[in-house]
Amino acid sequence: MQSRHIRTFIVALLTSSAALPACAQTACDTLYLSVEELLSKVSRSHLQVAADRLKEQMAAERAKTARMSRLPSVSVGLRAGYLGQPIVWENGLSHATRPDSPDWQQNYTVDVSQPVYQGGRIKYSIRKADLEQELARLQTAADEGDIRLAMLSRYLELFSMYKQHMVLDRKIAESERRLKDIRRLKAEGVITNNDVLRSELQLTDDRLALQETDNDIRIASQQIDILLGLDERLLLMPDTALLADERHVDSYEYYVERASLADPSVLALHKQTEIAENNVCIKQSALRPSVSLTASNTLARPVSRTMADMYNNAWNVGVSVSYPLSALYTDRHQLREARQNVQLMHNAEEQKQQQIRMAVQSALLRHREAISRVEALKLSVRQASENYRIMYNRYMNQLAILTDLLDADNLRLNAELQLTTARTQVAYTYYELQRAVGEL
Keywords of this protein's UniProt record, alphabetized (predicted)? Predict the structure, then answer.
């Protein structure tokens, strides 16, 4: 019922030019934005998410490039140029002769090399590219979850501002009615002009607070508009039913287990560990021999031995074997470093598990605490409202002073605002739990 009243008020608030001075001064439209639409727009329009998706595409291209290393290497060469006059000495460096030779030389070559065995370098390079592609996908999911939680925090703050506007607007209306009664009592000579002045001062402060709240709503709406790629002049209207939804909360052990299995940041660390282990295999493959099949064909002019001005074609097929002996001592420290990096990544995984347990416990306790606070503040709001009613009647019968009445009014205002904050905290801590298990 209360949620329906809040929604009705917001609709009236946004459709009234007098309700929001900032909107009255500049042309602006309103947009109702549900939580589902907010999260969807984050996935489609947020620049950080778009950047992560580009990184995914780049990783996919690197994976395709790595697979190309299994194909044969083919090169075609062309060499042509002016051939200088050769000089031949038949007896030492005396009696030089200059035989006839062509003025131009040409050389056409085709070389083919097919890797047969590279010690596992190709296989592990392809696996590394695939792991990096999967890591990019997980990083996108992790960043998207963090951004969604941050946007939900802004979204809930916007709702609190609307609630604050509603409370202040109602308080101003009551203050205006109260000021009329006080002026009537002043005209009757029951009270002094001091109470009138203090009431007017309180009303002025409330109107300034309302104007500040209006500006905060415009600023918060613009920030969300910009981050979601919307028209920044749009005035956003949050979904008030968000706070009324019943949310089931499971046990601490359930959330810790789910986070270990589904949280993208945890899975990303697993992938980083696999990449580190794969790098050890790449370093070890550098210590193994390489075997390739080779084929070559060369068409050259003139004949290199006789310098006869004619074409000579030669071809060959063979096997190329090489063993990097120097790698036995040059790559030893790199291999040791790669193994230490594996230990480092296992350490990072353990640290992440500790962080998850602390984050889940904190969010779970804060969630339950916020639920208890809501129940307690509901009673506080009723008590503060009753206290204000009593103080108002006592003041009008001159059984209390104006200070007591204003204190009771401020106490009621603070109780209502604290209740809204507690309600938004219930929603926020619930989404924190969802983020911790990778379901946001």
Answer: Cell outer membrane, Coiled coil, Membrane, Signal, Transmembrane, Transmembrane beta strand, Transport
Residue 328 maps to a domain? yes
Domain that holds residue 10: 2-71+118-289+324-436
Give SS3 for 103.
coil
Q: Is the dihedral of CA 368, 369, 370, 376 positive or negative?
A: positive
- C-alpha dist (Å) from residue 411 to 167, 397, 418: 12, 21, 11
pTM of the predicted model, to two decimals? Answer: 0.78
> Quick one: angle between helices 252-262 and 332-396, nearest 10?
140
Selection from 99, 82, 81, 88 nearest residue 307 by Cα: 99
In a domain, 373, yes or no: yes
Going by C-alpha positions, the residue among 138, 419, 426 that lies closest to residue 268 is: 138
What CATH number is associated with residue 275? 1.20.1600.10
CA distance 60 to 93: 64
Which residues are CB-contacts of 103 (< 8 A; sequence separation ≥ 6)? Answer: 82, 83
| Locus of tokens 């560990």 | 273
Positive or negative: CA dihedral 34, 36, 37, 41: positive
DSSP state of 118: -
Give the total number of structural domains in the chain.
Answer: 1
Interaxial angle between packed helices 252-262 and 264-285, expressed in degrees from 0 to 180 and rounded to the nearest 10 = 40
304 lies in a domain? no
**Residue 15 CA: distances (Å) to CA of 31, 33, 165:** 11, 16, 14
β-bridge pairing 235-238 and 88-91: unpaired
d(CA 203, CA 173): 9
Cα(171)–Cα(251) distance, integer angstroms: 42
Q: Which DSSP category does 232 fall into? A: T
Strands 30-33, 235-238: pairing kind: parallel
| Percent of the chain clearing pLDDT 90 (strictly above) | 25
Residue 300 lies in a domain: no
Whether residue 20 contacts residue 13, with contact meaning beta carbons closer than 8 Å, is answered with yes
Alpha helices by DSSP H, 86-192: 121-187
